[in-house]
Design goal:
homodimer, alpha/beta, 521 residues
Chain lengths: 521, 521
């Protein structure tokens, strides 16, 4: 077991004293980015299901819960559900729709999560939309070094990008798995890095009680909170996946229940690939996904009524020739929109993803990701996981794709600026002043607004072909490559109280001495 | 003047006898594509303007027409408008909202256009959406030969792609300007090629009476129609642009009136770049665009009440640092959506574009185009111009981009398949059969549907990284390059009656002898 790449080592390698949180103001020499903001999605969602369709999906999900049941591979969970009136048969748990609908009443439709920097508080639910970094790929890639296994160094690089970009609102799972850190202590080093390199909302993997408890404790320390303060409102979150079809595994349920007891958010995301782990029909896959998701949410509401819970959708199709998952497809879009309808029907916040299947940051990666992104917008998704950096169906975090995705995220955020039609917006007087055949560059109406009228991209090249060619005909990934290098080179840690940093280091050191989390290797 | 590359020469070079219309069945060895279909956009459009906002844009447009006026640089047009009660002051024409709203009553909200092959009939209006090829760039490019001035050869290549892809419903303007054809006879050779190489709806440029009349005559001949039959229903269309702000030029109005008299479609598309030719505020740019568009539509309804007319939107923003037009931006999307609201308010079919600013078919080109495409979908646009092949803000037609765009168009078409939630869709029995921990590959519900359940892309590479790398790590443009070469190599002309072909050739030869269209060089 190699624990030598410890917290102190990381600190020495990566941190500079006196770091300032310059990025929050949208400044920095690498790029000019949008300021931190919490986008509001005011548009009517796209709703492919009729009202009867919504009822049919609901009824199907209820029949699954009532007549087939969900396997809860966690005796404590099965016990809690049994006591609430579910029919428990070994691991199989069947629950009636009355119980489900009753328990859904206590789910908050919206809530905030407050990280160690309260200015980075995020709101989940309603018409709010927040974005998080790519999470959990085993590999990373960039144009210089190619594709490789994740390390602590690449993990830290991608966390720095997560912190730098204001369009990334929360730090999801590990943006790449640091395979050079032993799994027993990986969560300690990773969370230390994350809590030092970012001041945004963080996530805990529900992979065993020690990991979950350690992360909650570190988030509490980082926030300078008492245990009571930590428990009083959401400070972090976990995401659990069902083992579709119809199964919830032990550690996921265990972690979720631990967070629920302390009032922290659990996102329940069934992984329902239509034709593989779910029916080949998209409404069928969504139905099964709802049944799986609701089952866990009912459990968490029984554990701690009113605790924040959200449903996630990861319903997509597979390539029926190879079984490979596909993302950003027409089917994925419709499944996300149907999930949005069902989430609103149940009063649950919704999580989706900015996913693609492409193997490199080329045009396919862009169209697949943008299809996923507009699926999220048109479904009124509240949390977009994997919003920046995802490639290969989630198997690789690309540095360049991260930067490219932040460009499109910024555009979506700008798209969400309110549209108004005041007299000044209609601009009759300006049209009159300029008149037929004139131009608007010079008129007062333009001069007063031109600096802020339009979104200004940091990555798109809008020069004409001749200028673009003269500058070397640089394509988008190469431009993104230059940008991430500059961001990482200039990165400064967000400020943290040295006493809190010390307390985190002490905690990490103590837990490493105790062996971290048990592993079977 | 070089007229040597005549119709017969082209025929000899490009045609094979006995061509079959195999593509219509979605077959062919280059790719497996979707069959020809007319997509129906059932989703509720996205509507950024409130009802009051719609009224404000309407009122602004009416005030422009009433108080400022539009310049009609065509005495005949001004005369017609004057006789209808407009206040004509030289070229300036002011019209009252009563006249506008009265004339809009006769505009058909939907209609069909029937090309020489009635199976390629398209419907315009309502919830129908059709796609056309990139039109009018002076340059073309491909990965092998780079960027170059358009020629008849490249024109013909891109027309073949237009015909080949079933997701391209109409043959818009020249997909690239064939600069090796003298402007006086260019329209004759181009239309001959177009009418032979495609059997889809074609377009006439409104650039002088000879060109317009020649094209109408050639479309009539190609359809085997009498003059009365041609005039009885739409067979083709033109697009006219205003010279924003507030001006309609002579040849555009002349061409539009000629088509209107014969019952053919005119799309009126103001070219209102916010901050340059229109107010810097997007609702203001849309307001001006509506005023310009409605003014010409009123004229055409006076010329021939009930003739098909549509409004186009080309409202986008410019880079305020350089003045360069930008496309696929957040502002472009919102302007398109607002234009959709206004088009529905006025009962007019709407045209938009699949535009981007990128200089090569990289990821920027993809995200900009896909933003434009979703703008069209969410605005309930009826005709999407430039749907395949556009680069550089319209200055270049890319062979590879054409293929890439057809991939995303196919995905949009698949997205528009109706979503149903029947008992078989909900698939409760399949979920019960498979049960917890099973898989759906083998179950009857999947087996009965898997071949057609999901859209299957022809260009996306969904293989895993290792296979993709082993196959040479081929990026999207390179894959598209291979595809267009195969399509062009295998291309077969759609069938045409040899007598009609002969008649077209005779007409072209006669008109060339007469000198074609006058030019000033």
């Amino acid at each position: 077991m190699n624990t030598s790449a410890g917290a102190k080592g990381a600190r020495k390698r990566g941190r500079r004293s006196g770091g300032r949180s310059g990025n929050i103001r949208g400044k920095g020499s690498a790029i000019t980015q949008l300021p931190w903001s919490l986008p509001v999605n005011r548009d009517r969602p796209t709703e492919p299901l009729t009202e009867e369709g919504v009822q049919a999906v609901h009824d199907g999900a209820m029949r699954i819960l009532e007549e087939i049941g969900i396997e809860f591979l966690n005796p404590e969970a099965a016990d809690i559900l049994g006591k609430a009136g579910c029919i428990v048969n070994g691991e199989n748990v069947r629950m009636g729709r009355d119980l489900v609908l009753e328990q859904l009443k206590s789910v908050p439709t919206s809530f905030t999560i407050t990280p160690r920097n309260p200015e980075r508080r995020i709101e989940i639910g309603g018409d709010r939309m927040v974005f998080g970094n790519v999470s959990s790929p085993p590999n990373c890639s960039d144009l210089d070094r190619g594709r490789r296994t994740g390390t602590r160094e690449s993990y830290r690089d991608l966390i720095k990008l997560t912190q730098y970009f204001n369009c990334i609102h929360f730090a999801g799972g590990y943006p790449v798995e640091p395979m050079d850190l032993h799994p027993s202590i990986r969560h300690l080093d990773c969370l230390y890095d994350k809590l030092i390199l970012t001041d945004k909302v963080v996530h805990a993997y529900s992979l065993g009680k020690e990991r979950v408890e350690d992360v909650m404790e570190m988030v509490r320390i980082a926030g300078g909170l008492t245990h009571e303060e930590f428990d009083a409102s959401p400070r972090m979150y976990t995401n659990i996946n069902s083992t579709s079809p119809l199964k919830h595994d032990y550690p996921m349920l265990d972690g979720a229940m631990r967070l629920a007891r302390r009032g922290q958010l659990t996102v329940v995301t069934p992984f329902t690939l239509a034709g593989a782990m779910a029916p080949v029909t998209m409404p069928g896959a969504v139905t099964q996904s709802m049944a799986e998701g609701l089952a866990a949410i009912v459990l968490l509401q029984l554990v701690n009524p009113g605790c924040p819970t959200a449903i996630g959708t990861f319903t997509s199709n597979v390539d029926m020739k190879t079984g490979a998952p596909a993302f950003g497809t027409p089917e994925y879009m419709r499944a996300t929109q149907m999930s949005g309808q069902m989430a609103r029907f149940y009063g649950l916040p919704l999580r989706a993803s900015n996913a693609c299947s492409a193997n490199c940051p080329d045009s396919q990666s862009a169209w697949e990701s943008v299809f996923s992104l507009w699926a999220a917008v048109s479904s009124r998704v509240n949390m977009v996981y994997h919003a920046a950096g995802w490639l290969e169906g989630g198997l690789c975090a690309s540095y360049e794709k991260f930067v490219m995705d932040c460009e499109t995220l910024q555009q979506v955020i700008s798209y969400m600026n309110p549209v108004t039609a005041t007299e000044a917006d209609i601009a009759f007087d300006a049209v009159k002043e300029v008149g037929p055949g004139g131009h608007f560059f010079g008129c007062a109406h333009t001069q007063e607004r031109y600096e802020t009228a339009f979104y200004s991209p940091f990555l798109s090249d809008w020069s004409n072909f001749e200028s673009w060619e003269e500058k070397g005909a640089v394509q988008t990934p190469e431009r993104a490559n230059k940008i991430w290098k500059q961001i990482i080179a200039e990165f400064q840690d967000p400020p943290i109280d040295p006493a809190i940093d010390e307390e985190l280091q002490t905690f990490v050191a103590k837990r490493k001495e105790e062996g971290g989390a048990p592993t079977d290797f």
